[in-house]
User: What shape does this take?
Amino acid sequence: MAADMRLPTTRKQVSLSNSLSALDGKDLVVPGDVITSDTGFMRGHGTYLDEEKLTASVAGEVERVNKLICVRPLKTRFNGEVGDVVVGRITEVQQKRWKVETNSRLDSVLLLSSVNLPGGELRRRSAEDELTMRDYLQEGDLISAEVQSVFSDGALSLHTRSLKYGKLGQGVLVQLSPSLIKRQKTHFHNLPCGTSIILGNNGFVWLYPTPGQQDEEAGGYYTSLEPVSLSDREVISRLRNCLLALAAHKVLLYDTSVLYCYESSLPHQIKDILKPEVMEEIVMVTRQKLVEQEG
Amino acid sequence: MATVQVSEAEKVYILHGVRDDLRVDGRGCEDYRHMEIETDVVSNTDGSAKVSLGHTDVLVGVKAEIGKPRPMVPHEGYLEFFVDCSANATPEFEGRGGDELGVELSNTLYKVFNNRSSIDLKSLCISPGEHCWVLYVDVLLLQCDGNLFDAISVAIKAALFNTKIPKVHLSENEEGGKEIELSDDPYDCMRLNVENVPCIVTLCKVGYRHVVDATLQEKACSVASLIISVTHKGTITCVRKVGGGSLDPESIFETTETGKRVGKALHAPLMELLQKEENLGKKRPKVGFLG
Assistant: This one.
């Protein structure tokens, strides 16, 4: 039993001069910043014309494609691209499709024709399958999937036609900003601490105990409800708090940064990681390790 | 109440975690998330406090106004509660969506705080039967992340501690009527004794055990919870059950014992913190809403 009460601490002023080297000459703007007063450019997303001057309307990074100037916001919902790995939650079961919440502006769809049903890839989808859709995935279920295509209105169409995608079983979901996820070759990792992690491009991160033998027959729709061992739970909880700590300090998330953060959090108790001063210390050590590894 | 969707497998994971006394965020069953408290955040109130518990954020303002005492208790002032569920907290509160929760919260707060054993209501009396101080306690929910009752009760206690009621002088004028004169000096004020003000502890029954300070996910796994208000001496002043599920008498007894223990332990650090903040005086850094 513990109730930790404290006074709030003021946010520290970050001096830009220190972090300028890390920006690599990237053009960061805040709303109202004049990007250019040259009239030869075209107005893209995140900008507006103010007295003939091209001005930023969001905080983010300036992107230039020939004559077109856009500002890509840092705080944003998920803008999916084909091939992105996402973690999402089923919100609705409809005719031949599921609606999935993926932190993007519109609900994504998962078509019945783009899932692997039990019984192999070549199985025909009958009317019966349509009626039993809720047996595979029902409202509230979590899935991992890949973006198959993007509709003209920006809504995403997902697919789970691989054994690595599908319904997620026991574990913990952490919802973070999609800007913090580093794009990588693979977003599925088995961490050496005995836990697996799916870093969804949409900012949803799934932590789960590394599964033992994969049962191919079930096609990813069988979920084990056996209790997870206490040691696995401890690792998952620690990783969850580490992810939140990294996100609070805006550190890019990928397998190495998460693992380093996990290692540097080991001297502390799991529930203490979220205390501001501990969080700061852990993230500082993590940053140090990342710099050392790069250099 | 703001609700979240949780899949069956996640529920099983949370249930087993509570059974093993290791919750998703690493806490034990009787641990609170860390709490940040700041008083005197709204300048146009007589007392205010902002409490954040995890991502739950509440702001409480106390405004003292002169009113007429209730006829049944002419020697006492009284408190009024209003809870505003702003749509900032969750889109569900948009329009009239938050009204039901607001009324439920304010009714509970009224029961818990507006009685003479929690606050010395007699000190709010100016002239018996004619004038008294009415404390309007306004609660604003800024963010919901579970455990609203506990956060609100702590914020109310902090705001009442912070409340400065100007001293009044009663004088008789020529016609024999009474005249009320408010003191202009901001330091010439009356403070409330908040020693006996209770704190609320919400215990959610998850599986066969109960947890304090449940997050929204844990709340989604529980069928019933018990709201217990406890004073610093460990006296239980109010018990309410919320939620559709049923509790068996044995577990109620167990739960109240836990609530008593946890609630009692809540007061000492709170008072210590409030005293510390008070002693900082003008040196106190103002954080407000930007922290």
Q: What stands out?
A: Chain B touches chain A through 43 residues (CB under 8 Å). The helical segments of chain B are 8-19, 99-113, 148-162, 216-221, 249-280. Chain B has one domain: 8-283.
